[in-house]
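ARCHIVE CARD
CATEGORY: sequence design from structure
SOURCE FIELD: tokenized fold
FIELD CONTENT:
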């Protein structure tokens, strides 16, 4: 109960006592009702009660109205009581028993509230002064003196827990729920109470109900004992652990602070073992709950991770790629939802629903896998992108049957854009969609009889910014525009020649599809970068010399035509021209008696060393053509067989060589460059030549894949016959100085230039040069060497029903003058200028004048060629480029195959048809200066009926962007 409450009397006035009146107004003496420990009365109560009353009465002389106990007094009282009766009630309980009384006052105004309880602001007191008025939250006993302590001790020596009953009137009042207020002592003048209130009520409880105090909580008459507790399946009554429940109930009140104190007391009385058990039980339940919560969180996190990855995969695959699993229809979309590429995957399979692959068949790279009823599996995944704007996706088919060849087909109609790449086709089609190619192995060959030319790359590019790159180990078959319609089909198929060395048990097809913002950006990102690795200063000099100086190929279609005298006379004629630089003298394979001898024919070249020395003094460079073929008629053939240096027959002893045909040689073996013993042997043979004749460089004639023996077997297994070329170039990089190769499937190490295939000396042969240059440049060969001006041979197609690659072509007679001039005009702008027939052979002043003018133009073109050759070394871009590389958004540039650009600095539009002096010319965006009349022309338009006389060639120089007319 709060202390320090005041009445409506003046502060500091001594009250005579609280009383209550009857209905007649007769005053009734105030009754003080103490609470004691016992719950029954005995004989000791009277004695103890009298002494207690006397003690309380004597206490009034000290301070009758106040009940202040200092800390020292409280400690003294606790020590005293504890020492006398250790088993007695606590000090707090005794203070409540002896001090608290229920004051029932009756005023004249029944039910009226005399004064509300309120706090009053007081001035700050010293610590000692404030300590006198401090109260505990719970109801406190009054201060005790020595006499009072003695009375308490005597009372507790009687029966422990004796109780003084509450007076009947007070009990009735409490049971009725009436607000009962204990006596409130008057606060002395020097100490303000914390809370002051006066609670007057009517003396007649039966006639009128008591008024409610709106600012206080109704006090309950009693609090029931604590309920029974259950511990370890045993029920414990409240008396077992609460020996003072009755006392506590009687001493209870309902204020917030008192309830808190009461609960705290009760908990302190509960045995420690019960509290411990209850805490352990709660801890166990808490641990179980935390454990279950942890498992739930782990499950939710794992589930979210799986779902996120599935969503990420779906986003990666099916945001840009739409694939219908049952019909296997395929669509590649751009960022705006437009179709870049469409096709059908797995055309060799029936239409059926696939299943997800078994866990044992999944790959660690996170590929999405589908299986078609134990027939084939398809893996789809993201692939490494070469640039931030390029997205690549990998596709891999694994056949589960030996006779099932996975095949994917894509639409190549013009409505889906223009397709380029692969290589030179049999029909010399620059745009792949216009070709008709039946399914066949994708290996190099002779376009006169095979489907593909002498250089290939497994790279196909679309004008909409899509590219397909096929893995090098895939046994690739390619078909274009066959019975299936306008489609490019890629097939994985093993056979008995090109892909006889199976890399896997069953056929596989693996490729990558990439998309970019435009064709130029995509192409630049996919090209091989930096060809400078391992390049020496001498190699760089060879590149520059090939650009600046012509290659003079000694004309000889038979061994009898190539002699030491013929070489000397030819170089004399070159010097006599006077307007062309001296350059490289190329001697074909007839410098040896038999192919594979690797030594000079002493009869035809008795003093070739002296002749070569003369040529070097005049400024020429001498190059020999070599090949890895050894004729069975050569003296080296027997040695090579004995040392097992040749490719041998499949499924036979290594001593049995596999034979083939090469050019004019009807029977020859092939040096096995995968054999470590073959390289030193060939290097030793070539070293003997260098000791006799000082050779500057070599041109390697590999032939094609079909020049490899059909039942070939090498020391190391080849993926396909074309891989032989890569082995040769890798093994002889530091041994031989190679300035040209006849065939390739990868970019040869500079300074080696890739030679264009032999061209027929005709107008059709002239028209095939630009498409070939553009096609090879697109698939990644920047350094190209065209054939000689006027063509390589004359093809008697009327007399031959079938062409053979070993056919000995006759050198063409002197070509038609107009054809020669137009050919020379085109060759002037190509990287390498190559001759067999000299302009002086026509003995025509017109030809000589035109040749001199073109020599001057060549000097103006050289800076561009050198500049863009360096760019080609850095970025892998070709020197001779299609017009769409200048502007990949201009649809007019996509199909032009009779014009080309040197880098982005010059456009060349030669006349390629007999008798024409006018042609159509298209200029991309920009400002261009006409090379004929030096006029300025605006780009992004066609120039119709552009006049080009026979002695002129149309070319246009790119001007700065700020050029004005």
């Amino acid at each position: 109960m709060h202390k320090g409450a005041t009445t409506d009397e003046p502060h500091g006035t001594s009250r005579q006592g609280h009383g209550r009146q009857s209905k007649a107004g007769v005053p009734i003496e105030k009754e003080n009702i103490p609470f004691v420990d016992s719950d029954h009365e005995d004989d000791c109560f009277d004695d103890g009660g009298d002494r207690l009353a006397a003690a309380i009465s004597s206490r009034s002389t000290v301070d009758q109205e106040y009940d202040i106990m200092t800390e020292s007094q409280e400690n003294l009282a606790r020590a005293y009581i504890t020492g006398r009766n250790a088993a007695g009630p606590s000090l707090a309980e005794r203070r409540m028993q002896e001090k608290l009384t229920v004051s029932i006052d009756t005023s004249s105004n029944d039910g009226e509230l005399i004064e509300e309880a309120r706090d009053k602001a007081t001035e700050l007191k010293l610590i000692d002064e404030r300590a006198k008025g401090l109260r505990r939250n719970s109801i406190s006993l009054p201060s005790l003196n020595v006499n009072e302590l003695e009375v308490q001790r005597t009372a507790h020596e009687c029966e422990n827990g004796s109780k003084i009953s509450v007076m009947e009137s007070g009990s009735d009042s409490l049971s009725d729920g009436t607000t009962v207020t204990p006596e409130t002592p008057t606060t002395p003048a020097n100490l303000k109470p914390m809370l002051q209130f006066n609670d007057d009520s009517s003396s007649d409880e039966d006639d009128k109900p008591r008024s409610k105090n709106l600012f206080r909580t109704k006090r309950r008459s009693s609090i029931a004992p604590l309920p029974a507790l259950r511990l370890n399946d045993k029920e414990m009554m409240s008396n077992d652990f609460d020996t003072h429940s009755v006392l506590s109930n009687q001493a209870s009140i309902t204020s917030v602070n008192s309830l808190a104190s009461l609960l705290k007391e009760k908990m302190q009385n509960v045995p420690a073992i019960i509290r411990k058990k209850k805490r352990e039980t709660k801890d166990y339940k808490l641990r179980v709950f935390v454990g279950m919560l942890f498992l739930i969180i782990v499950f939710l996190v794992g589930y979210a991770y799986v779902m996120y990855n599935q969503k990420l995969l779906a986003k990666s695959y099916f945001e840009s790629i739409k694939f219908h699993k049952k019909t296997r229809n395929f669509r590649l979309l751009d960022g705006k939802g437009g179709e870049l590429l469409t096709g059908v995957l797995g055309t060799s399979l029936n239409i059926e629903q696939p299943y997800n692959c078994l866990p044992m068949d999944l790959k660690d790279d996170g590929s999405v896998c589908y299986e078609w009823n134990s027939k084939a599996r398809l893996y789809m995944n993201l692939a490494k992108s070469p640039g931030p704007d390029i997205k690549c996706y990998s596709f891999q088919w694994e056949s589960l049957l030996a006779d099932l060849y996975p095949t994917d087909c894509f639409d190549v109609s013009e409505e889906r854009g223009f397709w380029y790449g692969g290589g030179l086709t049999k029909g010399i089609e620059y745009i792949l969609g216009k070709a008709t190619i039946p399914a066949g192995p994708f290996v190099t060959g002779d376009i006169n009889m095979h489907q593909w030319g002498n250089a290939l790359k497994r790279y196909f590019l679309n004008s909409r910014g899509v590219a397909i790159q096929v893995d090098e180990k895939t046994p690739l078959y390619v078909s274009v525009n066959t019975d299936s319609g306008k489609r490019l089909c890629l097939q994985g198929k093993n056979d008995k020649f090109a892909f006889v060395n199976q890399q896997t048990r069953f056929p596989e097809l693996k490729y990558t599809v990439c998309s970019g913002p435009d064709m130029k950006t995509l192409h630049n990102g996919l090209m091989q970068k930096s060809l400078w690795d391992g390049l020496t200063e001498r190699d760089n000099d060879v590149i520059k010399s090939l650009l600046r100086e012509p290659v003079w190929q000694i004309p000889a279609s038979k061994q009898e035509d190539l002699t030491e005298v013929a070489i000397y006379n030819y170089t004399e004629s070159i010097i006599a021209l006077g307007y062309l630089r001296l350059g490289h003298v190329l001697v074909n394979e007839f410098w040896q008696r038999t192919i594979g001898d690797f030594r000079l024919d002493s009869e035809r070249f008795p003093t070739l060393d002296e002749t070569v020395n003369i040529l070097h003094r005049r400024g020429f460079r001498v190059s020999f053509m070599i090949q890895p073929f050894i004729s069975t008629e050569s003296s080296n053939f027997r040695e090579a067989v004995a040392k097992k240096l040749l490719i041998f027959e499949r499924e036979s002893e290594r001593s049995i060589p596999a034979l083939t045909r090469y050019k004019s040689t009807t029977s020859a073996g092939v040096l096995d460059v995968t054999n470590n013993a073959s390289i030193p042997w060939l290097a030793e043979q070539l070293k003997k030549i260098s000791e006799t004749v000082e050779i500057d460089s070599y041109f390697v004639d590999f032939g094609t894949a079909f020049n490899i023996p059909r039942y070939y077997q090498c020391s190391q297994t080849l993926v396909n016959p074309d891989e032989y070329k890569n082995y040769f170039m890798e093994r002889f990089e530091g041994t031989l100085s190679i300035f040209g190769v006849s065939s390739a499937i990868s970019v040869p190490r500079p300074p080696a230039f890739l030679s264009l295939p032999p061209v027929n000396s005709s107008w059709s042969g002239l028209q095939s040069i630009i498409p070939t240059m553009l096609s090879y440049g697109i698939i990644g060969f920047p350094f190209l060497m065209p054939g000689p001006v006027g063509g390589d041979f004359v093809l008697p197609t009327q007399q031959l029903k079938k062409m053979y690659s070993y056919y000995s072509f006759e050198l063409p007679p002197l070509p038609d003058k107009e054809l020669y001039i137009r050919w020379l005009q085109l060759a002037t702008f190509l990287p390498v200028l190559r001759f067999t027939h000299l302009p002086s052979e026509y003995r025509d002043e017109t030809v000589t004048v035109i040749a001199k003018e073109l020599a001057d133009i060549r000097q103006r073109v050289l800076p561009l060629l050198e500049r863009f050759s360096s760019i080609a070394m850095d970025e892998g871009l070709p020197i001779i480029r299609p017009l769409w590389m200048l502007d990949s958004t201009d649809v007019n540039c996509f199909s032009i195959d009779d014009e080309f650009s040197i880098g982005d600095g010059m456009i060349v539009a030669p006349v390629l048809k007999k008798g024409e002096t006018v042609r159509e010319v298209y200029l991309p965006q920009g400002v261009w200066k006409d090379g004929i009349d030096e006029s300025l022309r605006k780009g992004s338009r066609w120039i119709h009926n552009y006049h080009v006389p026979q002695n002129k060639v149309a070319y246009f120089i790119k001007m700065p962007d700020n050029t004005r007319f």
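CARD ANNOTATION: Residues 1-68, 81-87, 99-142, 159-254 have pLDDT under 50 and may be disordered. The chain has 21 helices and 46 strands.
SHELF: design records, drawer C
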